[in-house]
Amino acid sequence: MWRLDSLTDDANLIVTELISLAVDHGRLSSIRVVVSQPRLDGIRVGVVDRSKTALTRGMDSDGDQRWGLGLVLVDAVADRWGTEPYRWGKQVWAELRENGVT
Fold it and tell me: Does 102 reside within a domain?
């Protein structure tokens, strides 16, 4: 519908990883997948859950980033990603653009 078919595979990978993270870490009975088009050349996908635990870019004692494989994949594929806290939970989202420039 948005004519952004080139983003489909990456969006599917990101949504799969974010759902997996929500299921593994949130341990809650429901999640919601959100897909929007904030700009003409890109999409934003997100997974909303009721866990208030934020997923962030952690640092180990050597100053290196440390994440689970799911966030490593999201970080490698997405143009940008983050966590949006809600009063009752959070949304972890990622943005993709056709030209890959943010």
Answer: no
